[in-house]
C-alpha cells in the first residue's frame, strides 16, 4: 500500500511526499512553490487542502481496505507562503465497519505553526462488503432536484429588497 500511495500521480505533480505511514496514520509534506500562490501572493487554499486531503487518503487507506472520502472539511488559520515547507498529518479518531473519521492538521515546518485543521470521513469497502456510494445525477447531496450542470437555481429576487423600501 505504501508504494501505491507514494506513487500517486497528482501528489507527485504537486511535489507531495509521503513521510510516514502506519495503520490509521499518515504524514505527508510539500513545499509551497511560487506557482501555488494565489493573487494575494500567499499559498492557495486549494494547495493546502490538497495536501490535507492526500494525508487523509493515505491514513484512511493504510489498513489495506479501500476507502473513499465522503466529506472533508478544513479550517484555514494562517497563511502558507511560497518557499515554506508544510507537513500534513491525518490520524484516525473512529473506525467502524463501513465508515471512519480522521482528524487533519497542516503545519508549517520547522516552527510547527498551524496552517489548517479539520476532519475527514471515509466510506470503507470491506472485503465482500458493499461498494462506495454511487455518484451521478440524483445521487449527490442535492438529489434529483439538482438539475443539469449550469442550470439556474431558484433564489431570492433582487426586487424583494426593493419592494420593502
UniProtKB/TrEMBL annotation:
Gene that encodes it: paaI
Ranges for region Disordered: 118-165
Keywords: Hydrolase
Biased composition (Basic and acidic residues): 156-165
Protein EC: 3.1.2.-
Coiled-coil blocks: none
SUPFAM superfamilies xref list: Thioesterase/thiol ester dehydrase-isomerase
Domain of life: Bacteria
UniProt entry tagged with the keyword Hydrolase: yes
Protein name, entry field: Hydroxyphenylacetyl-CoA thioesterase PaaI
Domain Thioesterase: 40-112
Organism, scientific name: Thermaerobacter composti
Enzyme class: hydrolase
Molecular functions per Gene Ontology: hydrolase activity
